[in-house]
Amino acid sequence: MKIKPSKKPGSVVVEMNPRDSERLSQAAETTNGAPRPFELRTILVPIDFSACSRKALQYAIPLAKEFGATIALLHVVHVNYAAGPEFGAMDFPLIEADLRKSAEEGLAKLAAAEIQGQVAFVCLVRSGLEVIEIVDAAKKLESDLIVISTHGRTGLKHVFMGSVAENVVRLAPCPVLVVREQEHEFVKS
Amino acid sequence: MKPTLKTRLAEPLRSTRGVSPPARGRGADAVRQSAATRIQIRKILVPTDFSRASLRALRCAVDFANRFDASLCLVHVVEPASFVTHVGNVPPAGSDRETTNKLHHKLVMLARKEVGPLTPVSPLVCIGKPFHEIARIARTVDADLILIATHGRGGLKRAFLGSTAERVVRHAPCPVLVVREKELDSGWHGPSSA
Fold first, then answer.
1. Can you name the residues that pair with B46 across neighbouring β-strands?
2. Who among A1, A41, A178 is closest to B187 (CB)?
3. Structural domain that includes position B104
4. Selected residues 48-87 of chain B with any CB under 8 Å from a CB in chain A
């Protein structure tokens, strides 16, 4: 494409070759075209109330805004029923109910502090094993994206402490955005 | 000629992006929201192995790049048959150089086919361990996001075939978006269905 001043003052002559016009029509297609490979309607954010998971939420909010999606906050209560009678008589269902209640309150508080009514959200509390519940919730909600944070442990620490995030990546039914505790960030305030 | 074309085209498009909120679900409050936290993705690293899964990742990356005005860095990592010393980037020699050139050409063709003319793409071929090289390149090019595909193998298959995506997740210096080859029964509308 060549742009030259024309003899008439205040106007220009645009010379185009076929390849340029092809490029321009392609450009029009990519900007106006309907096919959008990445549509988000529900974003699942597993929360364990750590600073790390708060960061995942901080990533999910602008994404939800950008795509007009709903955020689903999920906390998984994991009561270890196997920790048996050596601790005396324990009312596990009561502990679980207690934990669920405080988790619900915590999620509501976190949502109020972080989301501040910018996007629609729902709070969910489930009990069971973290990975299984997260994956199951993603399937039930038909979520389009999971935003999860990881502590980013490697080596021995990684082997011992495991990683919920990693297992979620492996088993999730949808794309997963993994956010690290300390890293290069793309969400700027 | 190339830069003038790009700047000439990029400017009007950027402005239409600002005034066409209905298409992307942003209302009049977009201006108010822009003051709050927002997403700034300038560089997306897309590792590809030319498989169908990675093609899906590339298409998602193109969509992201259009949406956030980002540039793409398309990377293919060749694993050398023998890897004697771990010295980082092994300089390609002889036949290695030949394959690298061939792959680079393939990468350029892929970029030309899949990526629109307005998205800057830099194709890159590296030699080394895939996850190591991907993390290293992400650091060097200062990538904001790595968009990678996984085949989603589980169990025994996973143990044998390994998962580069998983290792990238563990070693990456930036957020990683993992896209699956085939999303299982979710409301996910992938590029294949579009």
1. B74
2. A41
3. 43-180
4. 59-60, 62-64, 66-67
